[in-house]
Amino acid sequence: MDKEIPVSARELAQRIWVLCKDFSKEFSESFMPEIKKSGFEINEENALDIRRGILVMNFWIISEALSAEKSLVDEVHNVWVDYSKNVMKSVTNDEAEIREFMLKDRNYLIERYEKYHNAMKKSDGDVTAALSMTILEHVFNKGNPDHRFVDAKLFIPVGIHIYSVLTRVSLYRKGFVIIENN
Predict the structure, then answer these.
(1) Residue 6: what are its φ and ψ, rounded to 5°?
(2) What is the C-alpha R_g of the chain?
(3) Strands (E), the chain
(4) Dihedral through CA 132, CA 136, CA 137, CA 140, nearest 10?
């Protein structure tokens, strides 16, 4: 095995954030055409929400992959908060608006995490299928069930993506050792 690279928890969290964005872009580019073929409309108005939903999906998967390292997961979440705050600061300097956005963003993340955790708990054995269906409903249809999601061309690629991200993040993590900041 190659030597582990020493990094601070913050640096590793930032590297993982870049991975999350890369996974999201990769998934969006490969999967959006399939969603369109299934009859879901993707336009300028909902494309940003869909991409954000994909980013949250990957963020949740990464959090699951790293769940044994709570302090690292917390640091990854701090990177998310910083990213969200910077996005908002590029739009406004109004501190009240920024705080309101941050609260909504936090609630959105918590709500999605709860949905995905509940899908895992409620599954009757096939966790991946249940989770895939829940993700499809929330990312592409505002949380509403739709018979079109039962199509294997949709939920199987999501399941493969979940497994792929879990595996890739776990392998990536093994390449680093966290050093304490002095």
Answers:
(1) -75, 130
(2) 17
(3) 5-7, 176-178
(4) 170
